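To whoever is on call:

I kicked off a structure prediction for a single chain this morning and the downstream step that reads the tokens threw a length-mismatch warning. I double-checked the sequence; it's 494 residues and nothing unusual in it as far as I can see. Pasting both halves so you can look.
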Amino acid sequence: MIAFLDWLNGILWGVPLIALMIITGLYFTIRSGFFQFRHFGWILKHTVGTLAQKDTKVTDDKKVISPFEAICTAVGGTVGFGNIAGVATAVASGGPGAVLWMWLTSFLGLILKQVEVTLGCYYRETNDNGEKFGGPTYYMQKGLGEQRHWGNKWKILAVIFGIGIFSTFFITSSNLTASEVVAGAFNFNGITVSGYFIDGRIVVGALLCLATYIITAGGTKGVASIFSKLVPFMSIAYIIMGILMIIVNINAVPNAFSMIFTNAFTGTAAVGGFAGAAVSKIIQTGMARSVYSNEAGWGTSPMIHSSADTPHPIEQGLWGSFEVFFDTFIVCSITALSVILSGTWADGATGGALALSAFNQSFGTVGSILLAIIMVIFTITTSGGWFTYYLAILEHINMKKTRFSELLIKAFYAVRSLPGLLWTIYLVHAQNTGFIWTVVDITSAIPTFVNVFVILLLSNEYFRLLKDYKARYMGIGEVDDNTVLFYEDKKVED
């Protein structure tokens, strides 16, 4: 089975998907006039630069969330175990060179996420409760089904996309990864109840499951409100730990960067418990982990960004670009450098165990405990972020208010965090957790392929919106008052 999964992963993350992502990323980059590079200062100014402003709300509608709440929820969904355990695994399986391909993929991801978030806001819908929902299935319906006159053919892509997204609901490693780190950091082997021994990882997993139930009880608005407080704290704490790690190993930093750049094009020889990696494996690993960590092109973030209070679809799309920058170039880079600098990447360990080993080597028990605490928050925010993604798709299914769709949402709320715990129980008893990252890559490849293909088809709508935004807000070009938007009141007001 493991051999089959490795083969399938090689097919899905083979030439077709890699080529599609590179071609699509370059297409949007070139046709937009290298927007994510030339106007990077504008992006920062109109995202994090707005946080110091007292009032950034566009409306007083309590049913929508603020741009800051949207980015915190999206970052909470992306910045998590994938940035720690996932990136550590990428270095352990692809070598240091995988980091460069992760960075290069993210340069294109800056524009890809801007496009998908923009389209998500542009085509979003408002349910009977006044809540706004959007995402890939919505722009498939309106952009392809209605504007492109596809009829019901858009549903084929939507179903494939939905299956790919919901596969992560049933197959996830977030609960297991955090449980491994926490149990390892506190040397918690388990407890005995009525003569039956329960592994420590399962006990921790059950507590995380309960915490996720509590966090998501308030729906999308509730999750966004909590995350606006949790995410900044966890991000700053992890960044500080990473900077300290780099300072402690400052003499090894030049060699670490040398390994990243040279191994990316020459391959990595076997060393210690590391089996070595060819250039093709390094590219595949770096790109797959980039998509899994920052989710650019995956189609997930538009589902929460579409609920945001925004004056223009592109304005929220800027937050998508910032999300990729913060996720990959800051958080993921810190993890990668920490693992490489520690030298533990070649010991044969992967996932949370590898990250724990790296921080333990530099900071001892204190480092392990701090990482464990951060991992708990990461896991809860990741689960909460993905909860909003699943809910956006289910709300789309529930637009016609059928008995089946309403029961589906109720069933989802009832079991919303159980699959992660069940996977932890299964993998702990199976004593084989290594293949989970292969499965994770497979589940990300399917929806990414569909979503990137769809935004490529809808590229003209994005460029029309970009032209309108640049004219209205950046003073580039002339405003076309006949530009009618397919969202809100059908028109963006000055």
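Update from on-call: the warning came from a stale cache, not from the record. Cleared it. Sanity check on the structure: The first helix runs from residue 2 to 12.
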